[in-house]
Amino acid sequence: MTGRRAVWIGVAIAAICVAGVGAVSAGFWRSLGGTEISLAGWLAMGLGVLFSLAVGIGLMALVFFSNRHGYDDQGRDGPG
Fold first, then answer.
1. What's this model's pTM, rounded to 2 decimal places?
2. What are the angstrom distances between the C-alpha of 14 and each of 21, 66, 79?
3. Spatial distance between the Cα atoms of 9 and 74, rounded to a whole number of angstroms
4. Alpha-carbon gap, residue 80 to 66, rounded angstroms
5. Which of 39, 40, 53, 70 is the most buried (most CB within 10 A)?
6. Alpha-carbon span 48 to 55, nearest angstrom
7. 45, burial (CB in 10 Å: exposed 0-12, middle 13-18, buried 19+)
8. What span, in angstroms and rounded, lies between the C-alpha atoms of 36 and 34?
9. What is the number of alpha carbons within 13 Å of residue 2 lying toward its C-beta?
10. Can you tell me the distance from the alpha carbon of 72 to that of 55, in angstroms, rounded to the nearest whole number?
């Protein structure tokens, strides 16, 4: 198995797990009774989750990029 194929399989498995957790969470929420979320509420929650994931993934990508290109290895002026 090539490295690229393994990455895509890993991404697919992670996406399936996230979708499954989301479906189970939505089912539990609906079973609570007396709690209603409008379509706009579901849309807002979904966009909030996507935005949070995008920020987290983007920041982690910057950490890895910085580390691989040696930006974290530069010396500092001053004591220490």
1. 0.51
2. 11, 25, 45
3. 36
4. 22
5. 53
6. 11
7. middle
8. 6
9. 3
10. 21
Q: Which residues contact 45 (CB under 8 A, 6 or more apart)?
A: 37
Q: How confident is the model at residue 32 (pLDDT cuts 50, 70, 90)?
A: confident
Residue 35 three-state SS: coil
Average of pLDDT values for 24-45? 86
The structural domains of the chain, with segments of one domain joined by +, span: 1-35, 37-71
From its phi and psi, is residue 70 left (phi > 0), alpha (psi between -120 and 50) or beta?
Answer: left
Query: Rounded distance, CA 32 to CA 25, Å?
Result: 11
